[in-house]
Write a structure and sequence with these properties.
heterodimer, A: 319 residues, alpha/beta, Rossmann fold, eight-stranded mixed β-sheet, 9 helices, 25% strand, globular, B: 306 residues, mainly alpha, MetI-like fold, 15 helices, 0% strand
Chain lengths: 319, 306
């Protein structure tokens, strides 16, 4: 396994109290595998990704418990300078959501793409330059050599996301965390970025964690899916099983909320209610207040039930 | 690029023309210069004769047109008081003024950039607090007082630096500090808030996620983004220092344009006032042009838009 996360708890210490943004999640990513982290806004997907890099909001964010192992090496106990030197950008890289703002507007892309390579001592001098051209060509930036001196505003949104990807894969990381990499792009460009991520994985064997709220994107790219709700993983399994036979009522509701072409229904099917506050979350199942299949037992923490090989869900209904 | 420069120069020429009208009219509202030149008991015939000699008996519009016509050929008339060409009087003193303003600006930037950056990085920490107090002190103390204080401490008590005069690099230190301390507060605030904005941006987050050392993030990748608002401010302050240095120039007996113009105002020495103000406004326009052009050096987006 490239990445093994066990019982990760990330807290945000706010004035209102301690917000349990990530509350005991466990997951793993194998070599060349893509895990989709799916859920609505505020479910803790992005903070899970940032926790892996230990890049939590300064002052308030803290990993309270749990273990994160990269190729067997524990990351939660590593010093911050070791994280910056050996892990961030070197063995775990992250792509952020908005390609329009993810590049520094006042530095040339040659400088920005070479920056991680230089900082992690991958290449210097003339080899650095040719390496940068290689990486940019790999992400299909046309005539990369001529464009090293160009600035981000001279590229389109899709190209910028490719350049961000080039920055991330330059050091051939073991794990790539892609946080909503296609959300800000239009559909035709989304397809290109998905194809690019697939190609990167095929070339380098990197594990990918794809954070998204878009079930379509997740379906097209992921091998496995983990569905997050209110800081917890409620269901995880192979992508086909999750879409064909979702077990958890939340996953079912999430899939039912996708409008399909030719649908006769007039109204979109939304999930009624709102996620609970994570400052003082309910002790039992967190989805219970919104759940159509709610039972009395749901006031107690739900058991994690194994349904088939690798398909698990945390729900009383399945117990 | 060339079109931009030409457009700005054209706009600048109009500003300078406007400044010349204003100063021409206002200086003449202050009274009759001849009264200052002759003894109190001079006969009216003598006064009339001098007025004719200087062309002061002509209609105001005609006087102005004559002034502009002569100015375009480099003739600003003779100083009533010093009996030498006003232009030479001003040009002789211009380098000293530019030197003082540049050193003052350098001092303020050298202080404001590190304080502003560190205040943003350690927001709410002790550097932030001390920096703010320090900068506020500068803004709360008028330049003449800072000047006197500096003279008292560094020239009189410690005897480290000369109290007044001009010539060696040591002479410029105290006046530059007196002139440059006031804008430190405003510049620090601009750098601090711009840095806070940048440090919170997505591209800095990405740089961190890719393991860029914090030192590089702050002093290279963030600082250049914060430079544009600072540059705008520097242009304004440099111009203000060129024109407003007369207090400091007076205290430190600095042979600059500001002091000369103020003295000329008191003696209603119109040619010197006109030449001085005109050259200050030319410098003002040029320094703003320089700032406009340097945006492009710092921010490639601006380079392309134009």
């Amino acid at each position: 396994m490239v990445l093994e996360v066990h019982n990760l708890q990330t807290h945000l210490h706010l004035k209102r109290g301690i917000l349990r943004a990530v509350d005991g999640i466990s997951l793993s990513v194998g070599e060349g595998e893509t895990l989709g982290l799916v859920g609505e806004s505020g479910s803790g997907k992005t903070l899970t990704g940032l926790s892996l890099l230990r890049l939590l909001p300064k002052g308030s964010g803290r990993i309270a418990e749990g273990s994160i192992k990269l190729d067997g090496q524990e990351l939660t106990t590593l010093s911050d300078s070791a994280m910056a030197r050996d892990i961030r950008g070197r063995r775990i890289a992250m792509i952020m959501q908005d390609p329009m703002t993810s590049l520094n507007p006042v530095f040339s892309i040659g400088d920005q793409v070479s920056n991680p390579l230089r900082n992690h001592n991958i290449a210097h001098g003339a080899t650095l330059r040719s390496k940068v051209i290689d990486v940019l060509t790999q992400v299909r930036i046309p005539s990369a050599e001529k464009r090293l001196g160009d600035y981000p505003h001279q590229f389109s949104g899709g190209q910028r996301q490719r350049i961000v990807a080039a920055m991330a894969i330059g050091c051939t990381p073991r794990l790539l965390v892609a946080d909503e990499p296609t959300t800000a792009l239009d559909v035709t460009i989304q397809v290109q970025i998905i194809a690019l991520l697939r190609q990167i994985q095929a070339d380098t064997g990197t594990g990918i964690i794809l954070i998204t709220h878009d079930l379509g994107v997740a379906a097209s790219l992921c091998h496995r899916i983990a569905v997050m709700y209110a800081g917890r993983i409620v269901e995880t399994g192979p992508v086909r099983r999750i879409y064909k036979s979702p077990a958890h009522p939340y996953t079912q509701a999430l899939l039912a909320a996708i409008p399909r072409l030719g649908d006769k229904r007039a109204r979109l099917q939304a999930i009624p209610g709102q996620p609970p506050s994570l400052i003082d979350p309910p002790t039992g199942c967190r989805f219970a207040p919104r759940c159509p299949a709610r039972m009395d037992k749901c006031a107690e923490p739900p058991p994690t039930v194994t349904l088939a090989d690798g398909h698990e869900a945390a729900c009383w209904k399945l117990a | 690029m060339l079109a931009l420069v030409l457009r700005r120069l054209w706009q600048g020429a109009i500003s300078i023309l406007g400044a010349s009208v204003i100063i021409f009219v206002i200086s003449r509202l202050s009274g009759d210069p001849v009264v200052m030149l002759v003894p109190p008991d001079a006969p009216p015939s003598l006064i009339a004769e001098i007025r004719t000699q200087y062309g002061l008996d002509q209609p105001l519009v005609w006087q102005y047109l004559l002034f502009v016509g002569h100015a375009l050929s480099g003739d600003f008339g003779n100083s009533y008081r010093w009996q030498m060409p006003a232009l030479k009087l001003i040009l002789d003193r211009l380098p000293a003024t530019i030197q003082l303003a540049a050193c003052g600006l350098l001092f303020s930037v050298a202080l404001a950039v590190p304080i502003g950056v560190l205040s943003a990085v350690h927001r709410g920490g002790w550097i932030d607090r001390i920096g703010r107090i320090f900068a506020m002190l500068g803004q709360a103390m008028p330049a003449f007082w800072v000047g006197l204080l500096l003279i008292l401490v560094f020239a009189v008590q410690l005897n480290w630096l000369p109290a007044f005069g001009h010539g060696t690099p040591a002479h410029v230190v105290l006046p530059a500090i007196a002139l440059g301390w006031y804008p430190v507060a405003a510049q620090t605030r601009i750098v601090r808030s711009a840095m806070l904005d940048v440090l919170d941006s997505d591209h800095i987050r990405l740089s961190r996620a890719l393991g860029t050392p914090e030192r590089l993030i702050v002093w290279k990748y963030a600082l250049r983004n914060a430079a544009v608002p600072l540059l705008t401010m520097l242009g304004v302050y440099f111009a203000a220092m060129l024109g407003g240095a007369f207090v400091v120039e007076t205290i430190f007996a600095w042979p600059g344009v500001g002091r000369t113009v103020v003295e000329a105002v008191f003696s209603r020495d119109f040619p010197v006032v006109q030449a001085g103000v005109l050259f200050t406004s030319i410098l003002f326009v040029l320094s703003n042009l320089l700032v406009d052009l340097s945006y492009g050096l710092v921010d490639p987006r601006i380079r392309d838009v134009r």
